[in-house]
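Hey, I'm writing a tutorial for new members on how sequence and structure tokens pair up, and I'd like a real worked example in the thread rather than a made-up one. If someone can provide the structure for the chain below, I'll link this post from the tutorial.
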Amino acid sequence: MTAKNNIVVHYKDMNHTNSYGLIKGLQFGSFVFQYYCLVLDLLLLGLTRASELAGPPQLPNEFLTFQDVETELRHPIRLYCRYLDRFIMVFRFSKEESRDLIQRFLTENPDPNNENVVGY
């Protein structure tokens, strides 16, 4: 979201032209921030889970609710909440999924001396 400002600043033998910059204005600034947050939400959740959390356009879901239990249990992300630039995401894994996740982490980040085994 840029605009051509074409402002030229002259000082002694130097000059600078500011030809691009953010469109200024209180109304447009909030639009840019909301658009940025929407893109951030879609990148973090993915399109399918974002649409499942939001619900269909005709009947959107209430806050922290799903349409049915099957939709809620389909994906490990159970809760997603964003406030400005901070977000909270709650996952729920089964015992097998959590073991698989830990095993995949340890294969990519080996710990030969078992220094980080506390908590597993």
